[in-house]
Amino acid sequence: MSETPPEQPADSGGSLSFDLADRPWIGVLGCDGVQEEMSLRTVFAEAGRVRRLVGDLPTQEFALLRLLLAVAHDALDGPRDIEHWADLWAEEDCFAPVDAYLNEHRERLDLLDARTPFFQVADLRTGKGEVASLNRIVADVPNGDPFFTSRMPGVSHLSFAEAARWVVHAHAFDTSGIKSGAEGDTRVKGGKVYPLGVGWAGTLGGVFAEGDTLRETLLLNLVAADTNGLRFEAGDRPAWRRAPDGPGVSEYRQPTGLRDLYTWQTRRLRLHFDKDGVHGVVLGYGDPLGAHNMHTREPMTAWRRSLAQEKKRGEPLVYLPREHDPARAAWRGLASLIAERTESGQGAQAATYLRPGILEWVSRLATEGELERTFLIRARVIGPVYGTQQSVIDEIMDDSLSMGVVLLHNRDRAYAMQAIDAVGDAEKAVMALGDLATDLARAAGAESDGPRSTARDRGFGSLDGPYRAWLAGLAGAPDPYLAREAWKRDVHRTVGQLGRQLLAGAGDAAWAGRTVPGKQGTQWLNSGLADTWFRARLANALGTPQDDSPLPDPADASALLPKVTA
Asked: Which class would CATH give 415-564?
């Protein structure tokens, strides 16, 4: 399909036009390894030959995926149930209805339209008529760190394709802080609107299921309307099928379903442009959306129970999105992704964590046999870390885990439990390694916090690749229990080698040792005793290659050694 380059906006009756249905603006990576931009129409037509979306930032990819899902849900009017989904999965040209759908709503998909610009408010202006720099919406220009961007010293101009991507991203991930007040917004005080929080997706620890092609990814995340635990209301529709927004909050309401939620207008903005591109923006707050107990509406995040919020609100059960920790690899939080989602009971009996609704949906596909047990998905996790009162984005986490859908099977939990317990094996072994680093530092009379942290980082770093490979192959293992025993042997070997490296580099001071405080008085600690304790802890955590029975606790072993009393 031929598409007009984004740098040449069409002139319709004297006004500029950039039709997102037919103009290339969405970055994609083809299965042939070629990166390009496609229009909405082409993305769906070519979804089976596209590997994945590509954004200027990972968060942009997440926001664009949600936009495409809203289009798919609305164009297909479903899936209504799992049978409808199965028909779509089996039909190669399942997104064919999108073509007519885009034609029907073309007037609301023009980025530059004078009356209903896409995801914008026509004639949005501040009381003084200010137009802000594009830095306000371009999130890869770190505030205060201009040397860490290719756009130094700032953004003075965007192509229409770039601007369209950042408009979608702003509604999803825009920072908080004081913003210019728009004329007609009743929340304005002294020409400003005070902080109302980040964009909706910015409150989430974003999770989605990724397949081998964009077609698979879209379908895997296309949740059926009869899914238990998620609310779908009659009349659910995306932003472009609702009345155009004004400058202020439209109404305090809850999303009617995924089409509404995925296109939620958390900001009010208007691009300023000429025939050469976009050169400014007016940006203000839009419709707020509270995160508490949204687990029945938002499927693309895990959830954590908040006892503090339960006490504050006087409610028996409150769940909040579980945000990502960029210092913690995704595999270490596997339990929050694959543990069964259950809210049965109140108080102490209620679940501490809920897995993402998207993975609950894939679990249903696996349990009901629509996906083969060995079918591999990548659980992709994307999320920002905001800093300075959420006014800047400090970091962005982007990670993925390949796993067989059998790990999500609701009637066969053996594979899932062994995968979760295998993470525990790694945690215990790395803890033993950290204890060894601490003991060696104490024996040498040095500070222990730095060596312990470094040793733990090395431990998790050394196990990162092996665990990911082991998890990806687990679905094909005939016996998950034997697979875990093999993993424990690998962990023992890897962490044991790291321990030997620590001992070899401990130095003469640790070898000679010194008197240190103990549980009963004081005792002599040197690298030899630290090694004994390390081996005991490692064996207790993992067993030994020859004998899987646990060794005595390290404290018991130390009791056999001479004590020096104070």
From this structure: mainly alpha
